[in-house]
Amino acid sequence: MTKVCQRCGKPVEDEDRYCSCCGRPQNFKPLPLWRRTWWRVLIIGLILYGILAHLLASSGNPNLVPTVILLGAFLVPVTYVIYLYESGALYDVPISTMALTFFWGGILGVIASQFLEENLVAGFGFLSLLAVGFSEELAKPLGVLWLIRRHEYADELHGLVLGGAAGMGFAALESMGYGFTYLLLSHGNLDILGQVLLTRGLLSPLAHGTWTAIVVGSIWRERMRGHFWLNRRSLGGFATAVILHTLWDWTASALPIDLVLPGVEFRWRFVDFMIPAIGLPIPGLIIGAIGIWILVRMFRESEQVLVTATT
């Protein structure tokens, strides 16, 4: 039986999960938890990271350092993007598009933010931190804007998840840079490397991924409503991300209140490894929770728009 898409008016079959023309959901149901991939990626990645860290510590082979840094920096961002992908918002987007968004968000974000920070950031006061937040939140969405004319990815949900992917690409590359820098400054101290990678990995969903999702989701929302994508509401989303980013950086230096999680010893067959004590900034956790709250509200509002449009 043929029915009509509620968005574009094109015919769709009952068995179709989405409109092949515009991507509108057609009674889509997310996979149950046990069939999802994200938790498998996380568990297997943690096991592999533990094995590699143990081999690096026991052998001292410097050839393993890039692999340890790469896996430690990318594990949580990739898991987070897979989780968002499997939420059902991007079932109509090819994996290659998601991967390119992650890649371009990271590469273009790093290049553009470095260029902007060289020209905007001066000194170490609050204004310099504001300039850092402004430049990075301006740079990361560049990895998504190549999709802005694609009508099949027009919903706010697409903007939220694609923005999260671009932000996580940036977070992964930035974590690699910090891990490498601290490894050099500590003269090869692997405990410090582990602390940097694990701490930044745990915090990345509260920071770059959330902030970029807010920015891009705001742009996609206005675009979906038929408005020019750069207007007062989308600029409000950008300003929200910049403020959260600036407060995050400021509290990290001005209010160093940490929640220290003690080291946890794991045993897997004949491999023993230690997760070092991790210091998580309490002010940063609060700011991150505010960002997640805003993001969840945007997700719920966008889902409600889809439900209203398809009924």
Number of helices: 9
Could you tell me the number of beta strands?
A: 6
Tell me roughly what share of residues is in helical segments. Answer: 55-70%
Order of helices and strands: EEHHHHHHHHEEEEH
Number of domains: 2
Strand order of the largest sheet: 1-2
The mean pLDDT is 81
Structural class: mainly alpha
Poorly predicted ranges (pLDDT <50, ≥5 residues)?
264-275
Share in β-strands: 5-15%
Major sheet size, sense and barrel closure? 2 strands, antiparallel
Tell me, briefly, the overall form: globular
Written description of the protein model:
By secondary structure, the chain is mainly α. The protein folds into 2 domains: 1-30, no CATH class; 34-310, no CATH class. Helix content is 64%, strand content 8%. It has helices at 38-59, 65-89, 95-120, 126-139, 156-185, 190-203, 208-224, 232-254, 282-310; strands at 2-4, 11-13, 258-261, 264-268, 271-275, 278-281. The strands form 3 sheets. It has a two-stranded antiparallel sheet. Strands 3-6 form a two-stranded antiparallel ribbon. It has a two-stranded antiparallel sheet with strand order 4-5. The longest helix has 30 residues, at 156-185.
